[in-house]
């Protein structure tokens, strides 16, 4: 079904007859949109026009760093999601949004930049990893996209930047097959990651003053560099459009009026009030509810060392390191260390939020808990932690864990990469103990994802490696056999729900 969205007047309001500038909504869902313009060019007004005109036709999700779009809730029924939540909460909320097809505004106002990046990454990741049954079309609008997909690293941590940039790349590069249509708006094209901007096929370019941004805008529109000067002359609310959903040739247009308004607008000049006679007293006399703060001045930095002092430090002989003191009973210390590590691993596994956290996040949690419990010795490296995490997830009793069959299963798992060993050992545990084959939902939780299709692909991968054989009995239940171990799981329903996830959802 072709749906035309009236974005305003073609020709920037100069065409006789006022021809409407129509945007093909169905084409936009397949080809994505990039909006660029300096502050005050009318980007937010353009996005608001697009959202209002398409609200009745398609589900919408707005990543709103400034809280400008929360007013859509009063008129169009959008649900406002406060970003001041844990990343796990935002991921689960995003999955429910796709399931129930509710339009939302993710309000990130009041959070610092790094928190905004982490929240947006978790939210977009939850929408991206939704089950295939819920891949309905969604218009995902990201305002100030240069914050979430920066071209270079800034003051935020590398981990937050990689999470946010990865989520934005998934949205623009792989989101179309999952029904996610990205609409990103930025003040500076030069600050936006090129691999994110390059995936858009539709463009709306507004007023721009910097040469580097004008040059990139002209390149994206297929214009010559000398024509880029026109972007400096555009008025507020005027844009140049190009793309299969808008126009096959660069088309000036003027954005039409909107029904709702932002909570904050452009500053307006106001006359100053008459100066009160006691102005000095008003300024220098503290009020009754004010708390006087003491200004502490930073100490003066010492002068830098001279060249002679630096050379003397470099030529000075280094003292011999002291030999580490060997414990009197090393076996007892090592046993205590292993006991404390096992205790920390149990705490992590028993945490209901741990199932869908990445291994990197769990590893940081593990290091913190080790310091709290004063675990002696060097901390475990990441590969060793992955291995212990996989073993802890199986939760075997001591007799079974010491058996020959389970030791052979451990040897087989060492041929796999660290990230999939946990899933393999959970299936092997069911075979060794004769338990029913785990469902796709249980395997997905063990892998740290909500996607059951990934769990099925892992079983296929194990089967291709010759580690196991998957078959279905006459009742449609799945059985996994391990030829090298001489055992197989009991019949299990692959579509059964994950009981642990349901218990956690019921508790919430």
TrEMBL record:
Region Disordered: start-end pairs: 487-508
Pfam family, one: DUF87
Superkingdom: Bacteria
The Helicase HerA central domain, residue ranges: 19-114
Protein name as it appears in the record: Helicase HerA central domain-containing protein
PANTHER family, alphabetized: HELICASE MJ1565-RELATED (PTHR42957)
Source species taxonomy: Bacteria, Pseudomonadati, Pseudomonadota, Alphaproteobacteria, Hyphomicrobiales
């Amino acid at each position: 079904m072709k749906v035309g969205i009236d974005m305003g007047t073609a020709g920037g309001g100069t065409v006789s007859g006022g021809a409407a500038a129509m945007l093909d909504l169905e084409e936009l869902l397949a080809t994505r949109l990039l909006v660029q313009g300096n502050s005050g060019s009318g980007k937010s007004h353009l996005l608001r026009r697009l959202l209002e005109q398409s609200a009745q036709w398609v589900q919408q999700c707005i990543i709103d760093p400034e809280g400008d779009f929360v007013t859509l809730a009063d008129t169009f029924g959008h649900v406002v999601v406060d970003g001041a939540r844990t990343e796990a909460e935002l991921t689960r909320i995003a999955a429910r949004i796709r399931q129930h097809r509710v339009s939302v505004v993710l309000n990130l106002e009041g959070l610092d930049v790094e928190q905004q990046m982490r929240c947006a990454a978790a939210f977009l990741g939850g929408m991206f990893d939704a089950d295939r049954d819920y891949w309905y079309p969604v218009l995902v609008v990201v305002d100030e996209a240069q914050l979430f997909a920066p071209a270079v690293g800034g003051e935020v941590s590398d981990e937050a930047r990689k999470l946010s940039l990865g989520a934005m790349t998934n949205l623009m590069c792989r989101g179309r097959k999952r029904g996610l249509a990205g609409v990103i708006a930025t003040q500076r094209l030069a600050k936006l990651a090129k691999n994110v901007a390059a995936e858009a096929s539709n463009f709306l370019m507004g007023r721009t003053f910097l040469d580097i941004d004008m040059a990139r805008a002209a390149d994206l529109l297929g214009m010559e560099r000398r024509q880029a000067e026109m972007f400096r002359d555009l008025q507020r609310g005027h844009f140049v459009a190009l793309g299969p959903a808008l126009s096959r040739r660069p088309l000036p247009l003027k954005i039409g009026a909107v029904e709702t308004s932002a909570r904050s607008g452009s500053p307006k000049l106001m006359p100053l009030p008459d100066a009160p006679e006691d102005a000095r007293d008003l300024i220098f006399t503290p009020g009754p509810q004010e708390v006087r703060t003491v200004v502490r001045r930073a100490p003066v930095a010492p002068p830098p060392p001279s060249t002679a002092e630096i050379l003397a430090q470099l030529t000075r002989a280094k003292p011999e390191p002291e030999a580490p003191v060997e414990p009197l009973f090393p076996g007892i210390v090592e046993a205590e260390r292993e006991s404390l590590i096992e205790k920390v691993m149990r705490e992590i596994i028993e945490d209901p939020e741990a199932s869908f956290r990445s291994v990197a996040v769990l590893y940081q949690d593990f290091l913190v808990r080790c310091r709290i419990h004063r675990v002696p010795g060097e901390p475990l490296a990441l590969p060793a932690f992955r291995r212990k995490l996989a073993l802890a997830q199986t939760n075997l009793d001591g007799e079974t864990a010491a058996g020959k069959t389970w030791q052979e299963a451990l040897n087989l798992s060492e041929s796999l990469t660290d990230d999939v060993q946990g899933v393999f050992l959970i299936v092997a545990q069911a075979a060794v103990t004769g338990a029913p084959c785990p469902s796709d939902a249980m395997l997905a939780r063990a892998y740290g994802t909500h996607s059951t299709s990934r769990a099925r692909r892992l079983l296929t991968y194990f089967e291709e490696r010759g580690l196991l054989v998957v078959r279905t009995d006459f009742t449609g239940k799945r059985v996994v056999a391990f030829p090298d171990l001489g055992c197989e799981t009991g019949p299990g329903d692959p579509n059964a729900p994950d009981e642990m996830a349901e218990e956690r959802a019921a508790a919430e």
